[in-house]
Amino acid sequence: MDLVFRDAEVVDGTGEPSYRADVAIDGGRIAAIVKEAAQAGCQRPTARRIVDAEGLALAPGFIDMHAHSDLALLRDPDHSAKAAQGVTLEVLGQDGLSYAPVDDRTLAEVRRTIAGWNGGGPDDTTVDFDFDWRTVGEYLDRLDTAHGGRGIAVNAAYLVPQGTVRMYAMGWEDRPATDTELERMRQLVAEGLEQGAVGMSSGLTYTPGMYAPDAELTELCRVVASYGGYYCPHHRSYGAGALRAYEEMVALTRDAGCALHLAHATMNFGVNKGRAPELLALLDAALDGGADISLDTYPYTPGCTTLVAVLPSWAHEGGPEALLARLADDATAERIRHHLEELGSDGCHGVPVEWDTIEISGVTNPALAEWVGRTVPDWPTARRLLLEDRLGSTVLQHVGHEENVRAIMRHRVHTGGSDGILQGAKPHPRAYGTFPEYLGRYVREEGVLSLEECVAHLTSRPAARLRLPDRGRIREGFVADLVLFDPATVAAGSTYAAPRTLPVGIPHVLVNGRFVIEDGKRTDELPGRSVRRSGR
User: Fold this and answer.
1) pLDDT in tens, 321-342
2) In sequence order, what E strands does 384-505 have?
3) Residue 220 per-residue DSSP state
4) DSSP annotation string for 363-418
5) 63 has which bridge partners?
6) What is the pTM of this model?
């Protein structure tokens, strides 16, 4: 054998009670599990390397169901932000905006639009690779051959981004698609799924995806369903219209016959304090009626997005350059302010903006660095930042409620997703801390979930949603994506003051049977590969 974890407390991902065992790895897969080997007196597996796992828990690698590492995996071979947490698979292409499928025009537009999430904007001189892919398949191939052909730090799956698809097919116009345009979008989604995407995402408070009416989304979901994929919407409101927005997604996917995975499912802003039970009742009724639904959350209260995202959708029509022109015009900027502060912008979830909840977490213009960590005092300041940073500023939005976070994470279809934006000088600590935060705070310290239940949320449940037959559990023959951690000490190191601090209590992480974290340190291994949809 290549490796044996000896006397580990195996938390196998099923939610069933843990057990003591030797677990042997060979050829990148779990080759043998010998329960209570020391006590049974049976022959114990041997290997070229034996790791003493006494007192430690061995679990399947964690699956980040909502990641924004689309460029980070290509830029940073280390990628300790996720590897050190025990994450062995990330789902990219989130919120309806990513880098494939594209043509030259669409790629330039999407690079500027989500530079705040991923960097890689047209003016980013730190990008050291070519954006030479155009299709989903070519992007996945690039992940497989990144860093001189060595690969990436952890595995990655991909969702076809509906906003990018709409941008490709019809630009930034706020209108229903023509029959020809809709057929082009259907083709693009089908091609992405054929090339390995696991489903489709939307960002329905982000333009241009939010311009799509339900009928258009339903047609695209029918395509997704025909390939056995799932729909992952950031839906139309997490604020004033949150419950209606959840109902809309449940009804839409029911009509399309498509599986539904609700992205960063929570109830934010003052209007939704204490209302998580209403959301959970809605989901339970749909599940009991036969709907195929899952969701993900991160264990924190603030959200994180770009500053430009809170603006009303009408201001974005025509694309980033048209928006910058509107911001530069005093009369139009006043109209934007009126929508933001008095009416409640659709980009701000129908809630009038509260500037003291918006904290700048990153800028792309070094001249604006003094703003990082400060709240935005008013619209004139926000307008100046948007113009001088060319829409690249990221923000923390302090609008969540702890009781909602706790209630939702207990739900039977809950999974973990970091929604981790890795850009900016002061990113949200969830990017570096989501999974140890679950294990340390919400399992050990507060008992919101049992260890076995929590591990199931982070492993087998997401693997089932992704239809991965040989990941997410500790079983003989399964891929050796594994994390060995200390239940007594595991904790997130990241804080709001020091968000890039790595976690503690996770000495070993394996991706495809190879150590990416060994004795608490990042190795130089790059065993990660794209994980592609299989079957139809």
Assistant:
1) 999 999 999 999 999 999 999 9
2) 394-397, 414-416, 482-485
3) H
4) -SSGGGGGGTT-B--SHHHHHHHHHHTTT--EEEE----HHHHHHHHTSTTEEE--
5) 89
6) 0.96
